[in-house]
Amino acid sequence: MNGPPHAGVLPVPDTRAPAGYATYFGLVAVSFVLSATLRHLLDHNEADVLVAALHARDPSFIPGDWYLDLPIPYRDLYNLLAGSLAKALGLLPAAVVGRVVGVVCVSAALAPLLARLRVHPALVAPLFVLYQRYRSVVAEEWVVGSFETKTFAYAAVLGAMLAAHRRRWVAAAALAGLAVSCHVLVGTYAAATLTAALLLGRRDLAAPADDDGHRASPSRNLWLLPLVVGLVAATPGLVSIARMFEAASGVDRRAAGEIYVRLRVPHHTYPPHWGTPGSIARAVLSCAVLVLGVRAGRSPLTRFVARYALLSAAFAGVGFAVLAAGRVDLLKVYWFRFPDAMWPLGATLVAGALVSERVPGPRGRARVVAVAASCLVWATLVPAFARDARALAMSSRADPVYLRTMPAGVRGALLWVRDHAPADATVLVDPFLSRTHLATERAQVVSFKCVPQTDREILAWAARLGNLAGVRDLRDDDATGLRRLAAEAYRLPAETVARAARDFGASFYVAAADHALPYRVVYEGGGYRVYALDGPSGG
């Protein structure tokens, strides 16, 4: 027989899962992999962070690029691991391997949660494919996607949730600290949310049971060891915070923050940029599911997960307060990121638990419907996945899969630069065209995608864009200059091109074929030409 429950803790219902961890792991992993579109490999964040990681490990790759030469402290751990992987395998294989490892880590963290929530296995595929489709409430946040630091931070966050609920304090502290080291903001917000969820849900804490089923009564005085372990695990992240504050000294931090928030990442940080009916509907639906989980969940873990996700909204509340106070610059710390990820993920877990708690046994019509829905979901995804896998297998240096969505004409010009320009050349190209580092493997004057993270460098990045746009301060014209630059990027005035060559060391310019400039044409085709800026042509 089980002994009496620990004082102040409600009796915990039977948490034996209807399937083992391996089943849940496989179901979640396959759902994530099939939901991914491989043709987007290196299209998104890898085009920035993985290239920077390789450059950090091998400075001979794209030498002299002002952005890649900048230190971004919170990526130090990522640069060491991902950069070494890219150096050993190459960028595209590293992106594939990194995404697979990310899926494995998140799936391994979700498997025990799903098992202890007793989610019916047949519900997993439909739930997580739906989650991948609507994984953000409003701010376009994601957990599983590109090969980036926050995927691993979220895996550690999920592991810390379950460990803390089971009163495994040392493991919870270690995982929370690891999350901070993987991604400072995700880890810090997660640790604060976890603390609040534990304090507000003390009666739902599950005391761990030994092999005989007797529930342990852990000492309440053993807090020092978890604290020390958590701080040690978080040390790389805490050091990066200190370094970023040190780098911001003596800089107009308010100007840098406003530029970053309003011009570069409003989709993540600036609420006036949001407000679509779909995002509002997702927020309301997620909130309803989580509230239902707190009020009607039969399992303490179901209530804990729902409470945790709901409490993450406190950071969004701070963000709205900051916005109301007129301090747009302070939105730079992504107040909406963590709740934007946790609400849909928490709602997915809670919805699966609530439905499973009310399914009448492992047999019956509900099981048949769930299995049929799962098979239908995967059947619709497999053809697209097979198509993208075939495109990946046929990728070559002459026709890289990660450039196939780029217009053919400009792709030809950029590949000419890659194959013929000196290794230390700097290219002036449309700042709003992504993946140009990958296409040219050369330094760029500036890229809108590649924005630094420290205030001093953000201002330098804005100055480069403003120089090309002919705007002294990008904050003064409400992005009009940037829109003009985007429209005229391949037809820049001769004086702007000359200024880029003089001030930023540009040695080549990718222009429209009908845009005449007094420089030597070294390539022409597909509606584009490449000018060598080493002197006038004499024409």
Write up this protein.
The chain has 539 residues and is mainly α. 58% of the residues lie in helices and 5% in strands. It contains 21 helices and 5 strands. The protein has a 5-stranded mixed β-sheet with strand order 2-1-3-5-4, with helices on both faces. A hairpin with a 2-residue loop joins strand 4 and strand 5. The relative contact order is 0.12.
List keywords for this structure.
disordered N terminus, five-stranded mixed beta sheet, mainly alpha, 5 strands, 539 residues, 58% helix
Number of strands: 5
Helix content: 55-70%
What fraction of residues sit in β-strands?
Answer: under 5%
Number of helices: 21
Seen as an oligomer or otherwise, the chain set is: single chain
Question: Average pLDDT, to the nearest integer?
Answer: 87
Largest sheet: spatial strand order: 2-1-3-5-4
Strand/helix succession: HHHHHHHHHHHHHHHHHEHEHHHEEE
The secondary-structure class comes to mainly alpha
Radius of gyration: 26 Å
**Shape annotation:** globular
Report on the biggest sheet.
5 strands, mixed
Low-confidence stretches: 1-17, 209-219
End-to-end C-alpha gap: 95 Å
Quick structural overview:
With 539 residues, the protein is mainly alpha-helical. It has helices spanning 21-35, 49-57, 76-89, 91-117, 121-133, 149-165, 169-182, 184-200, 224-247, 253-264, 266-269, 277-296, 300-311, 313-324, 337-358, 365-393, 408-420, 436-440, 455-469, 480-488, 494-504; strands spanning 426-428, 443-444, 508-512, 519-525, 528-536. 49% of the residues are buried.
